[in-house]
Design a protein that fits this description.
- The radius of gyration is 17 Å and the shape is globular.
- It is built from five helices and nine strands, in the order βαβααβββαββββα.
- By secondary structure, the chain is an alpha+beta fold.
- The chain is 17% helix and 37% strand.
- The two termini are 24 Å apart.
Amino acid sequence: MADKVAGSRSGLNVGVQAVAAVVLVAGVAGGIRGLSRILPGGEDSGGQVTCSDAHGTPPPKRVSGAQLCQALNRSDLPVLLGTPDEPVRTADGDDNWMTVDGTRMASPEANVTLQTYSVKLSASDDRFSVSQGLDLLPQAQPRQILGHPAVLYSDRTTALTLDSGKAGSGSGGVARSLLVSKDAKEGGGSFEITIWRQDDVVPDDAALFRVAELVLPTVPGWKSG
């Protein structure tokens, strides 16, 4: 689920007096973390950015944040997003954990940012059925991705600002997400891809589907057929 920072979530330029970024946040602390990762940390490398070292402890026998980053950080990602002239700025993975009903579960994710778009790929092994998302997720619509049940839905981003060391927030734009079952029969677990823009323009659903259809089959744990 999209409940954590979705920005390519390195340090803030101390010379910056007023900056802004758009992130998908669940709280202020997470938002500030996401802001620091969205902002470019130095000169443009001029080439493909490699995934940074993953944060957190990877789950045993489960897909890790590093593996999600490797799958998402494709050389053709800018083309899939419809922004072929924009190089990837940042790419990294996180090995997060969450506790649901007393059970601690892995919640790895990867984030990649470009000038226009940010993309998040996450994985979940919870018992949440993708079809349940039709009732629980905002503006949810049933879809299929390569024969797998999926749900397309919208969420809101938050615009974060940092002015002379003071953080603030305001209303952002729309994020579009695809929640996709790991197998064709909803046997358990899901992947989620979220895209949003660094302006108020609604993301291109066609770009979201292009990314999902090419990235998901390369992720460990995806079951074809």
